[in-house]
Amino acid sequence: MKIFGRELVGFAKALVVLIAVLLVAAGMCGLQLAIGNGSSGNSDAVFEPLGILELIAMLVSAVGIVVVLLAWGARGLYRLSLAESKSEAEETSRNRDRTENDK
């Protein structure tokens, strides 16, 4: 049996985990709102600390998603610039070899 997410590594895995946390916390917050509206006022003592934890989880995961996306993009740009500089260095080396062979 193949389990989703086992093959993911690095930024992709972090992004999937953060999105899952965000969705679960948002769902729990909505469920808490639905239960809280249907019950008497006594449930606020139980649901209030849980609501605060859910909001913190949503905030942390949303910030984490933005940070992971920015870091992933920065790494991609760095690798792209590194590959371009490497190809330019190889081309310069080839041109230097050609000019030395022409002499």
Task: Characterize the structure shown.
By secondary structure, the protein is mostly helical. It has one domain. The chain is built from two helices and no strands.
Computed over alpha carbons, the radius of gyration is 26 Å
Order of helices and strands: HH
Q: How helix-rich are the residues, as a percent range?
A: over 70%
How many domains make up the coordinates?
Answer: 1
Structural class: mainly alpha
**Which term fits the overall shape?**
rod-shaped
**How many helical elements?**
2
* Main beta sheet: none
End-to-end Cα distance, whole Å, is 66 Å
Low-confidence stretches: none
Global mean pLDDT: 79
Number of strands: 0
